[in-house]
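Interim report, section 4.2 (structural modelling).
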Amino acid sequence: MRNSNPQTKISEKSIIEALIIASPEPISDGKLSKIIGIDTNDIVSIVQQLNKEYEESERSFEIRKIAGGYVLYVRPDFSQWIVELSSRSDSELTRSMIEVAAIVAIKQPVTKSVIDKVRGVNSVGPLRQLLEEKLITIRSRAKSPGRPFLYSTTKKFLKIFGLSSESEIPTIEELGNLFERFDT
Amino acid sequence: MQATNYIKYKVRLKVFEGPLDLLLYLVRKDELDINNIPISKITHQYLEYLKFIQSMDIELAGEYIYMAALLLSIKTKSLIPQKVKDSKSIDEIDSEELSRLLIEYRRFKQVGEKLRILLDKEKIRYPVRNVITPTEVKVSVPIEFIVLMKVAWNLLKRQDRITLESIEEEIDIRSKMDEIDKFIESKKRIKFIDLFLENQITRINFVSTFFALLELIRLGNIIVRQSRPFSEVWVYVRKNLRQA
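Predicted structure of the assembly:
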């Protein structure tokens, strides 16, 4: 965190900030560490520090970790105004799409027949829509007879749900415990 | 075939995602114990619902009928005392299995609901955008240039403006570019064919006009567009990207 280059007085903190701002996609700890040449742990703490500074100086933005990398976001407090200027048309996700996405997210990589079994209906429609929206993808084929496709979630999936990684997807276990608490 | 099934079904029973969803609704509605489903009661209600749907002259998706058959078979079996518990065939399920299916389905539904909340939250989050990126300056050549050259050539020929005599003349592409540039500048957009200013156009003049045009497009000064096939081809100025 100290000045690595005293002549130009550019701190690692500013370099990280600059890289996050300039990167066209989420920039990972690994990539930052490789470019700057410092430990990933240091990067995590510098990013925290940056966010703290932004908050204290009432800046309108913050750094978030989305889909495995850092992205600069406008703070949610400003959304009500930003809505006014944007004409972004989000494609609406239907209930069946969300349901299938949830199954893929948790059971990935997963075949269509497993999804169909869980839902009790044919999921060809929502699967295709999710593929079209690039929220899921086919990474490989199962070894089972017929070598069916195995579906997994994509980076775009993480992005639209604001998750930093697959591990942030709400799990069944978590919810299972929740049920137990309610059911008993 | 499958796809049309899906679409039809969506129209048919919009409210429920499938037979499991419907069953789950019935369980919740009557506050039944999902681990110990009263099979007779649920079967009755399920069939009532299907009857209601059919009374509205709505065709039912196969999955709903299949589930009705499953429920009836579970119910029948529960009524007949079984001496020996024989091994189950593939399609046979009991009420325990039904509970298991419903619980699993419910869990995924809950995950889905959680995802929906995340999605709604995320919808109003805005990343700070890199508005100016190096890839912004794209060469926009929407129409085949050779085709455009041919069309222009034929048109000028019909207007009798092409001189086929070989006249020795030197044309500087850069001054041609300046010429076009100034001409468009004053008009914002012009018809492509109006780029040929002279009354009589020599071959070298014709070609150099195209060269100049290509160079201007490459530099990002102008854009050539045709909104739809057979419509007028226009040349636009790209003001904001003009070089000083």
